């Protein structure tokens, strides 16, 4: 008969009112919990003891990911919540040890935290993972060579192409974006002070278009070209259909469209805004 206050596996269900002592392992605690029937109040006690007993391990796993842009307190909380999930999901009857089950659960939660909650910008998962490996590889090569590794050395060490490595290096810089209030100089100038002002011509684009600039430009085109524009962009006809209806070749339709669009773009980009008045009003309809 086991000397601990509970009986496990070979001894059957724990004796009523008895809880494992401080010397019991987490494995024993969870094995004893699984012997108890659902609703037994001892199950909650054993669960709590198992979680408290494994908190040091979850904290150690969290510290492995420290220094990567996230506060250690936040990482410890993520690891602790994953530990609770592991305790609740563990089934001792399957034979695997709890540690072998809990460690992947906790490390997976930490990696998902970096992937889903840590980045200031949305970055593809493959790039995120390569960025995490990049930090470790940089440290290893610095110790090996006694200097900062070159991009070529990092790419060879990580077995990735130079282009993929460049993307990961760039992504590392957007993990945490700097505040616009970040001080840049001793006189208190911040990042916002060096950001360019809004180009006033941007507002002029909307204003000119809203006053019918595009319509006036279309009206200056030959009538046939206006009709082709209407058939192509209003009626959504294909160039072949337009050619058949007008009795001209598709190549000629394509050439007229290119010429018309070029003239419209040139007119919209005219900084003076001067647009010749059309000889007569024409509606952009077939």
Describe it for me?
The longest helix is centred in the N-terminal third of the chain and has 24 residues. 59% of the residues lie in helices and 0% in strands. The chain is elongated. It has 286 residues and is an all-alpha fold. Helix 2 crosses helix 3, helix 3 crosses helix 4 and helix 11 packs across helix 12. The N and C termini lie far apart (97 Å). It contains 12 helices and no strands.
- For the residues shown, what is the average pLDDT? 79
Domain count: 3
Structural class: mainly alpha
Number of strands: 0
Number of helices: 12
Q: What is the terminal separation in angstroms?
A: 97 Å
Question: Into which percent range does the helicity of residues fall?
Answer: 55-70%
- Largest sheet features: none
CATH architecture of the largest domain: Up-down Bundle
User: Stretches where pLDDT falls below 50 for ≥5 residues?
Assistant: 1-23, 273-286
Instruction: Please tell me how large the radius of gyration is.
Output: 35 Å
CATH class division of the largest domain: Mainly Alpha
Note the overall shape: elongated
CATH topology of the largest domain: Four Helix Bundle (Hemerythrin (Met), subunit A)
